[in-house]
Design a protein that fits this description.
Oligomer: single chain
Radius of gyration: 19 Å
Helix content: 40-55%
Bound molecules: adenosine monophosphate
Number of strands: 9
Strand order of the largest sheet: 1-4-3-2-5-6
Structural class: alpha/beta
Amino acid sequence: METIKTIKAMRESVAAARRAGKKIGFVPTMGALHEGHASLVDAARASCGWVAVSIFVNPIQFAPTEDLASYPHPLEKDLELCRARGADVVFVPDVNEMYPPDRPRLTDVSIRELGDALCGRSRPGHFTGVCTVVAKLLNIVGPDKLFLGAKDYQQATILRRMILDLDYPVDAVVCPTVRESDGLAMSSRNAYLSAGERGQAPALHGSLLLAAEMIRKSRPPAEQVVAAMKEFITARAPAGKIDYIQICDSESLRDVPETRGLVLVALAVRFDKARLIDNIVVE
Ligand code: AMP
């Protein structure tokens, strides 16, 4: 497995794989890798002859008040996981490589209302940062397939739409959320939880299962489902402060009053140092 730090070397490595007739799979990440990320590498490995992972903590998707400075960087461990799961290349550019200080970036890729919904309300500009870096990474790697996790449902929806709107010749594959045995969605940010908070955090997934059960059983108004979820989380995760719980159309991400059709139930809850998100799609 190669570790590559520059855009030029990355382009050369991809070009060599292309000349060898390989199909290119790409898994962008911010590192602090866990089994959720590993499942994306496995999926890429299963359908592509050459697999690239990127590890880049993208500063432009963090607000000044957020956790950029404390985001974990266990690089050796991450490289070990990539090697063990069969990645061919790991691209680890530093921030000056992606955003040269002598050439301030004048271009942004933003996605209008899809980026303002859900997490966009409490993280203004976040998805512009995500779209901009993924657009750059797609231009550097030029993959056939891009592997994303359903844990970040809004992010995957936005990137799928960006790919369509900007005619990127890449297929986006969205892989299921990988969870701990108690249901908590795996996340690099789970490391910020205290032992007490970690004990309470599975209530987030519990509330989503409750919502799914209510919707499947009787299709109550969205308001009723949200109220039941709030009560569930408040009782079982008192250390968490609910940022949002929303029931949306699974494509447009617009709030829906009724729970008919395919609906996305999405939430974000803040603990002391960690803001956790999770979701479920209910038919
Ligand atoms: P991140 O490093 O958090 O930016 O995530 C990189 C990719 O891994 C994104 O496509 C995420 O959706 C995906 N991912 C993160 N956590 C999980 C999980 N628990 N299950 C599946 N995919 C995940």
